[in-house]
Amino acid sequence: MAINFTPHEVKVNLKNKTRLKAFLKEQFAREGQGLKSLQYVFCSDDYLLEINQQFLQHDTLTDIVTFELGTDPGVTEGEIYISVDRVRDNAEKFKVSEEQELHRVIFHGALHLCGYKDKRKDQAAKMREKENEYLQLYFG
User: Fold this and answer.
1) Alpha carbon distance 14, 84 (integer Å)
2) Is 8 labeled as ligand-binding?
């Protein structure tokens, strides 16, 4: 089970990668979802906008786009693209540290791959509750 973090033409300050990988494996286990491979790609707004337009036909900026690439619904093979620009802006907007906002988005992507949705108000509320739970578990 491989988890990788790759910057694409951006700098990202991701501390304790080994601990984070172990925590993500635990997150999937807690959610009852198998994990085969997970690739996080940290990128710019422009790069993620291109992905959003090309694959999802959305012409908007976003902080994250998540893709399930596997065919087994019980085992994740995923790619998660995160805009470092959005993370920085949202950290300022919500008055949290960039580190905390980056981890919120990292856990958010994993939750999507575990089956959580956030399109409806009730789904978004549940997603936020789970993000907060994992942030609390991770940062204590």
Assistant:
1) 11
2) no
Report the top-level CATH class of 2-139.
Answer: alpha beta
Listed by start position, the domains of the chain span 2-139
Q: Provide CB contacts within 8 A for 110, sequence distance 6+.
A: 24, 27, 28, 38, 80
Task: Check the annotation: does 103 bind a ligand.
Answer: no
pLDDT, tens only, 19-74: 999 999 999 999 999 999 999 999 999 999 999 999 988 898 999 999 999 999 89
For the chain, what's the residue count?
Answer: 140
58 is in an annotated binding site: no
What is the pTM (predicted TM-score) of this model? 0.96
